[in-house]
Amino acid sequence: MSDIWRKPMLKGTIAVASDKSITHRAIMFSSLAQGQSIISNPLMGDDNISTCKAFQAMGVDVQLVHNAIIINSPGVDGLREAEDVLDFGNSGTTTRLMLGILSGLPLFSVITGDQYLRKRPMMRVIDPLRQMGARIDGRDGGRLLPASVRGGDLQGITYHSPVASAQVKSALVLAGIFARGTTVVSEPEISRDHTERMLPFYGVGVKVEGKTVSVTGGQRFEPRNMEVPGDISSAAFFLVAASVVPGSQVTLSNVGINPTRTGVLDILQQMGADIRLENQRLVCGEPVCDIVITHAPLEAAHIFGEMVPRLIDEIPALAVAMCFARGKSIVKDAKELRVKETDRIVTTLANLKALGVEVEEYEDGFAVTGNPDFQLPSGVTLDSYGDHRIGMSAYLFSLLQRNIIVDGMECVSVSFPNFQKFLAQLQRGGDQ
Ligand code: S3P
């Protein structure tokens, strides 16, 4: 066998994993509507399965078939108390949005999650839900899971969220649908708006004015058939991979480009990435396109302010691009990274440091000094730290240097079950 190792360029077309955020909401809204709803092209990652199981436990018929989820629900009035604890696994979105829904239903529920979820802050939703009248208790006064919810009898509130969080906004809007009066939620910057876009599609009216969303209680969900686009957060790994591996050109088909999610495209383009959006269209109220990305030299990036919520989940992948960009990249205003599946400032930098990259840690971000000629060391073991996006980001380095191994890649099943297979397919230059 030859000892010469060539970096395999990435070539071809793939459809990346379906959108996790949209799939969660489609399962929830379909389960709250009486009748049959079909979700086509859903993500069947572990997190979404947690959402399915929650509604199954409450008496909804949720069937996972080939590339679809078929939901037959008795509707809100027919939901029953789950007999056992609801285990949301690793899923923050399931937990926060279900806290909103469970608060509105006249049922008693107990919820928990895995070792990572049980460390994540819940007061950001539990505090305003208590203000609406929800009886929620939990570990450390309600700051942490496990938690119990005795729902029903809510009153709408006006709430200014101190964080730009779609999970907080969505939890309160969902609770507001079951509350008396009107619920008004505003946030400091606009976070992803799938809830506001999808609720009208499922028959629930909402009013959006800038950074404020209002909903009137007493509305009913209607069953619908929904098609889920590809997840731009999953596409991000391939956007970075094709940008940094010389000779690459990749087409990512059917990717959601909701403007509240496309910060990764804006930043990569500012860095000099060669990205083309083709075939732009609207599918079930969400903008979608095919993305063509070609290898190009990159410059340093500056990420701060209102850009942060538009790419919060893509920062670990962007940190990989920063290693190969000319100059010092800086991420600020991103303290939220510290309360994701892991502290993503710490875990991102731990892997970069293991590779000898010059980094600085800030309270609300980090800096990476990149180099287009960066020669990765061989024989390094990186770690997912049990966090899917950290694992997939670290894995990108293995495309550029042999003997870079990432421990704990099994956690990618949370959002992208076939991630490594898709990369290998592009390395072989094959289309799907
Ligand atoms: C999500 C919102 C974001 C994001 C998460 C999914 C959602 O979290 O990081 O992966 O689907 O609403 P925050 O609301 O905590 O910012």
Describe the structure.
There is one protein chain. The protein is α/β, with parallel strands linked by helices. It has 2 domains: 214 residues, Enolpyruvate transferase domain (UDP-n-acetylglucosamine1-carboxyvinyl-transferase, Chain), CATH 3.65.10.10; 208 residues, Enolpyruvate transferase domain (UDP-n-acetylglucosamine1-carboxyvinyl-transferase, Chain). Helix content is 30%, strand content 26%. It has 13 helices and 22 strands. A 4-stranded mixed sheet has the order 1-14-16-15. Strand 3 and strand 4 form a beta hairpin. The longest helix has 13 residues. The radius of gyration is 21 Å and the shape is globular. The mean pLDDT is 96. Bound molecules: shikimate-3-phosphate. The site of shikimate-3-phosphate has 11 residues, from helix 6. Its main location: cytoplasm. This is 3-phosphoshikimate 1-carboxyvinyltransferase.
